[in-house]
Amino acid sequence: MSPWTASGAALLAFGMVPVLRGVATGSLARRLLAQNAGSTVVALAFLLLAQGYGRPAYVDLSLVLGLLGPVGTLMCVRLLADDLAGGAPRGSSVVTVACVVASAAVTVAVCVATTPGRALVKLVLIGALVAVGNVAAAWALRVGVVAKTDAAR
């Protein structure tokens, strides 16, 4: 087992424990935040596993998940706006910062191991999409909940 596959497996094993706990318990807002963090963890694991196994198709899966994960969270926030009026999830900024730091760390590590060229640009793009998508989804969750709560008053 290479260090890349070990890192990918460790990220999945240890990163999904708090995600599964967040999805299984708590308020609706907390579950949506955990779902968004889960898509980030899996997208980053795909980047590490792509490097470990030498499979560029995993990078494409990471790109798709990096795009669709935050979009799914945004759609849920929009569709469940009435049910999210209870308040923003506690600790959402900590989860968002952790996901962005993990995105940056994994992206830099994989980019260092990749030769310059088109694949490197693709990896940087994926890392940026995962990080920005996570921030946008967390912001929409927080702003959507706050705006709905203020409008109810």
Q: Could you describe the 3D structure shown?
A:
The chain has 153 residues and is mainly α. The chain has one domain. It is built from five helices and no strands. Helix 2 (28-53) runs antiparallel to helix 3 and helix 2 (28-53) packs parallel to helix 4 (92-113). The longest helix has 35 residues, at 118-152. The protein is elongated, with a radius of gyration of 16 Å. The mean pLDDT is 84.
Keywords:
elongated, mainly alpha, 84% helix, single chain, 153 residues
Mean pLDDT rating: 84
List low-confidence stretches. none
Number of strands: 0
Largest sheet: none
Gross morphology: elongated
Radius of gyration: 16 Å
% residues in beta strands:
under 5%
**Count the helices. How many?**
5
Tally of distinct domains: 1
Distance from first to last alpha carbon: 57 Å
State the helicity in percent bands.
Answer: over 70%
**Which class best fits the helix and strand makeup?**
mainly alpha
What's the helix-strand series? HHHHH
